[in-house]
Amino acid sequence: MWIKYLLLPLYTLMAFTLHAQDKIYKKDGSIVEAKVKKVEVKVNHAGTGKVTYKRFDNQDGPDYTVAVNDISKIVYQTGFTDNFESKKPQAKHEDRRQSQSKKYGSNIITLLPTTYTFALDGTIGDPGIGVCYERLLDDHGHFGFSLPVIYSFAQNRDYNNNLYHTSSYTYTGPNNYTSFSIMPGVKFYPAAGNGAVRYAFGASFFATFGREPYDVYDSHFTAGVVPGARGDWKYTMYGAAFSNTVNISVTKHVYMEFGVNGCIPFADNRFRDRADYENVFLPIAQFVLKTGVRL
Questions:
Q1: What does the pLDDT look like over 24-47, one tens digit per residue?
Q2: Whole-angstrom Cα distance, residue 170 to residue 159?
Q3: Which of 52, 171, 211, 228 has the fewest CB atoms within 10 Å, i.e. is most exposed?
Q4: What fold, for 2-98?
């Protein structure tokens, strides 16, 4: 009889072991009595993954899976609790960190209320206006495509500059000559896209189409004699431009930019008789102010 009382604790332990189980508490309020085999949770993506288990009442049966995102906690047979609800703030923090580059929009539309373009040889010194569209191409805002269009006014051209002609004739015609430039290119922002003030540099192709008085390109008339030609001289320039800009997101949607472009012409037919003049392939500098919206 006394042997039965000695074995009673052993029977109790065996019974507890046979009936011990893991409990999966789901967010819909249900509880699954199970034998958990594996818990898979992605370290940098809290809330994602799965739990593989067998039903406790059929441990020789098939494996079942449930998404971690559908579980609030698991209480194991040992008494340990794996609380998945507590991992939500980490997921929010991770999402917030990953979304910093999305603080500002990827589309930038600006007006150019002030531009100034001048050539180092003195043949260009034109103010202008324009518009620009820029698109940031990657999630962190390092690379962008830019498309500025500039309309310049040659109202203060020195038509008696000897770079144009060797005559003492004084031109008195109208000064309302203009040029149109388009400059598609790319920009690189070394810093990530969550900064309000960022520096960028880039490269672009430029094409300029303009017109000026025919007189300034005609070097073959007699000094002191008014030339007969009175039409316009239409010219084109093509080349490469290199930019340095400071980009400021004043608010989430208000945007400003200050830039300096260095342009090198590859083709330039502004001069009718190039043999009579000094080299025209001198660098062109351009100052640009932009203001607009970021969406």
A1: 999 888 999 998 988 887 755 555
A2: 8
A3: 228
A4: SH3 type barrels. (2.30.30)
- Give the SS3 label for residue 151: strand
Find out whether 96 and 253 touch, Cβ atoms under 8 Å. Answer: no
pTM > 0.90: no
> What digits encode the pLDDT tens for the residues 68-121?
888 888 988 887 888 887 554 444 444 444 444 457 889 999 999 999 998 877
> What's the burial of 14, exposed, middle or buried (CB within 10 Å: 0-12/13-18/19+)?
exposed
Task: Characterize 126-147 residue by residue with b for buried, 16 or more Cβ atoms within 10 angstroms of its Cβ, and e for exposed.
Answer: bebebebebebeeeebbebebe
Please return the burial class of 278, using the count of CB atoms within 10 Å of its CB with bins 0-12, 13-18 and 19+.
Answer: exposed
Give me 283's structure tokens.
């660098």
DSSP label of 12: H
CATH 2.30.30.100 range(s) for the chain read 2-98
Residue type for position 73:
K
Q: What is the per-residue DSSP string for 220-274?
A: -SPTTS--S--SEEEEEEEEEEEEEEEEEESSSSEEEEEEEEEEEEEEE---S-G
Residue intervals in the chain for CATH 2.40.160.20: 101-294
230 pLDDT more than 60 = no
Which comes out higher in pLDDT, residue 102 or 212?
Answer: 212
How many Cα atoms within 13 Å fall on the side-chain side of residue 92? 5
Per-residue model confidence (pLDDT) at position 169: 46
The C-alpha atoms of residue 187 and residue 172 are separated, in whole angstroms, by 43
State mean pLDDT over 189-208: 90
pLDDT of residue 188: 96
Percentages of the chain per state (helix, strand, coil), in multiples of 5: 15, 50, 35
